[in-house]
Amino acid sequence: MDQAGPSRRAVLAGAGVLAVAACSGGTRREAPEPDPDLPIRALAIDGVRRLVDLYDVVGRAHPSLGPELAPLAAETASHLAALQQPPAAATTSASTPTPSPTVSAPPTVAGARAALARAERHEADLRVSQLARASASLARLLAAIGASEATHAVMLSATR
Amino acid sequence: MTSTAVTATPATAEVTALQTALAGEHAAIYGYGIVGAHLRGGARVGAETAYDAHRARRDQLRDLIVERGATPVAAAAGYRLPRPVETATDATLLATELEERLAAVWLDAVAALEGELRGLAGRVLQEVAVRAATWRGGSVPFPGLTGEG
Fold this sequence. Notes:
The complex is a heterodimer.
Chain A: H1 8-18, H2 38-61, H3 66-84, H4 87-92, H5 109-131, H6 136-157
Helix pairs in contact in A: 2-3, 2-5, 3-6, 5-6
Chain B: H1 10-37, H2 41-67, H3 88-112, H4 115-136
Helix pairs in contact in B: 1-2, 1-3, 3-4
């Protein structure tokens, strides 16, 4: 009757944080349909590609950062792959990948790390701003990517 | 085919998603009480900071739920820990798991909520993921996304 009251599901989910493996309930099947997510997905792809390019350029300019950057760059590459996964997004996207010839690496290692941290933080903010216009399933992916980007930003900002 | 009779109304779905997140925060608060008791120094401070953050989030969720005319779910009387916590290492591992499982809860909230509340869930997920990475000592590609990445 009290439909707004604490639901059994909510209580179980709370226990899930501590008891058994969390059962992620958001992966309900979604029927294939003309993809209304295409524009927002394309935006996210552009953003993540900017990060991929920046990691690439910085990694070349500052090989000493390699060990630190490699796992972060790999995760960023996996973000791009996940966003491009539906064939529709890869093939029907009208926007050709914008080459980013303007990306350049800051001259110092500290500067390069700071630039990457800023870029990751910026993209993490963009991911949040993109959530409202996305379908539930794309929103999950965007939010997870944003959370990873936020983590990268903090790791890159950590004092060494 | 067009019937949505068995699905929740948007308002109910929203409250349910908020209640689920609140229940997760309750559990995390309980867990951090144990985590903090087993840590010293900077790690202890980190646990206390996280504890406070989860309490603040709990309060915010309660307000959001009350604003929607519902009664916020209460904390459970007790929670089962995945394993005994006796050492600082155990405590760090528990803290990591708390945040990781909470990440899954908040990612579900992202999918279940809309508009500004979805944005809030996305921001909370980022904070949760950062804390998880701090305890873990490394990042993961898709925080909260279980069974993928």
